[in-house]
Amino acid sequence: MSTERRAPLDRTRVADTALRLLNEVGLEGLTLRAIARELDVKAPALYWHFKDKQALLDEMATQMYRRMVAGAALDPADTWRDRLLKTNRGLRAALLGYRDGARVFSGSRFTGLDHAHEMEETLRVFTDAGFTLRQAVRATRTAYAYTIGFVIEEQGVTPLPGERREGYDLDERARRMADFPLSAAAGAEIFQDYDIHFEEGLDLLLAGIEARTGIA
Prior knowledge:
Layout: H1 11-29, H2 32-39, H3 53-69, H4 80-95, H5 101-105, H6 116-128, H7 133-157, H8 170-176, H9 181-190, H10 194-213
Helix pairs in contact: 1-2, 1-3, 3-4, 4-7, 7-10, 8-9
């Protein structure tokens, strides 16, 4: 009989296992049964920790956030532009580390207050710069929604770096849409060079925020 002791089953261990499995099977294949099999337990054991899959996704998103900010220090000298760029670039980089990472993160509710410190400090950067709290919330939430949406679309084409889904060959797309020349040519602008497109989108957001608020 083996005397090896199994690590205790807790929320963190389940979420870590689920995140590891996510890269293999994607969000659709991430079932409680599959996670239980990976942990070598029966599926009902997971319900002691999570009432349903959404509760697990909430914990996974929280764990993703903890990993994203671990060791990252906020610079109190940041301008509002600096902070918006840093946080959204960091968010995109973190989400791209997981297959369907943006879909897991989107709509999930953090299970702790890990995010509160960064949120408080970011809102303070904005309000110190002259934004009202309402303006600060609108600016930061709009940028957040842009980043989440951008990465969802990006991962629909490239689920993981270096991996491209079938059906997104640009030459084939151009041939099929030959009767629509502008739309055919737009494929090269839509389905590649995501780093460049993301930065251009952030620039548009920054310009819009400045134009709307008058705060440079």
